[in-house]
Amino acid sequence: MLIKSLKIVGGCLLIGILVLIFLLLPTKAEKLETENNALGYVELLKQAKNSQPNSNVYASSQITPDNPLFEGVLALQRGRYGLAEQKLKLLMEAGNLDAMFWYAETILGSSVYATQEAGDLFLKAANAGHAYSALKLDPTTRDCELYLGYRCSEDWIEKGEVLLKARAEQGDVKAQYYANVIKKPRSEEDYQRNIDLVTQAANNGYYMPLIETIKRLERYNSLDNKKKQAIVKLVTLAANNNFVPAIAASYKYTKDKNPQQAEELLLKLARLGNRMAINATFHFDFQALQQGDDSKFFNAYKFALVREIIFRKNNNTESMGWAIVRKEIRPFRDGEKDHIKLAAEEFINQMTPMIYIDEMHPQYTRFDH
Asked: Rounded CA gap, 136 and 142, in Å?
């Protein structure tokens, strides 16, 4: 009897080991992604070959200035939470479910009371048929684990998917992608389907799936020069259509190889409202100023003011102030401070900020500093 029991246990253990080995083996889709990498995105690479900068600043912005959500979501993207609350609350109270989602996203985690309110609003919006709010209540998500607690349940996973498909049928580009993407592709068909969906999303001006894919592809150790070049081409395609995270990636690729082009990209990012670019432009000019290049004084203070006015961050203006006190740089000359302030305001007035965060990536701005 003991021998028979040991045989059964041994058999079960062997089966378990075989199942584990099977699960750990790379799938056909994983093998294809490793082998092909960015080269698998044939159609988008063809488009990238002839890609030129798009004159439509909002070509890749899912929320454009004509949308009532624009000012509120832009404020959230900029980290101006109080302004975002103010703008979005008015729309939410008028019955806008998208505004309810974004308002809840804005206040989530800011305090115990606000987090309770945010959870109730996500639940209310989900019950009213808002797909992205329903997906927010997936118990496997970090927000459910940290903030939303008892409101989350596995039922919302299925309900969210149903709502997402309904939204996709109405032409929601993001929903079309997330309702159909295969999260754990196994077969060659799964692999190709996901490529087609990324391509379709990009063709409709939604480049976040492409950039998220590229971030994953960059981590592979098997990147030869041809694959690296393909990644750069795909990023350039999205950058030419004014997608801020892609322009930031292009800047990363070019800053050492082509400083002049990198400087142009940084200025383009600044004009699109990118916080990292505005901050970096200040620091480059400020460092040059500290090293004795007095010609950088005007531009350094201008971008310090741009950052302060837009993002309510005065670290850079304070840095210049203390540098003047310590006599590391020269003081302001007569009327210069007011003149530079006017230049900063003019720069801001000519900016065309685009929104790149979306309901599936509401906190993407955390990586933009």
From this structure: 10
Closest C-alpha among 229, 231, 205, 200 to residue 218:
231
- pLDDT recorded at residue 113: 94
Phi and psi torsions of 361, nearest 5°: -140, 55
Q: What is the pLDDT of residue 98?
A: 97
- Give the pLDDT band (50/70/90) at residue 1: low
Q: Measuring CA to CA, how many Å separate 291 from each of 9, 108, 263, 323, 328?
A: 74, 43, 19, 12, 9
Report the C-alpha gap between 103 and 107 in whole angstroms. 6
Distance CA 151, CA 173 (A): 28
Q: Which of 305, 28, 311 is nearest to 192 (CA)?
A: 28
What is the per-residue burial (b if ≥16 Cβ within 10 Å, else e) of 225-239? eebeebbbbbbbbbb
The DSSP call for residue 204 is T
Nearest to 367, CA basis, from 241, 143, 208: 208
Q: How far apart are CA 84 and CA 332, in angstroms?
A: 35
| Neighbouring residues of 6: CB distance < 8 A, sequence distance ≥ 6 | none
User: Residue 346 pLDDT more than 50?
Assistant: yes
Instruction: Write the DSSP string, 180-234.
Output: T--SS--SHHHHHHHHHHHHHHHHTT--HHHHHHHHHHTT-TT--HHHHHHHHHH
Question: 251 and 269 in contact (C-beta within 8 Å)?
Answer: yes
What is the predicted pLDDT for the residue at 23? 42
Q: What is the pLDDT of residues 183-202, one digit of tens each?
A: 899 999 999 999 999 999 99
Rounded distance between C-alpha atoms, residue 361 and residue 307, angstroms: 24
pLDDT digits (tens, 9 = 90+) for 228-265: 999 999 999 999 999 999 999 999 999 989 999 999 99
Q: From the CB of residue 36, how many other CB atoms can be counted at a distance below 10 Å?
A: 16
Amino acid 346 reads E
pLDDT at 14 over 70: no
Q: What is the largest CA-CA distance in the chain?
A: 100
What is the average pLDDT across 303-328? Answer: 95
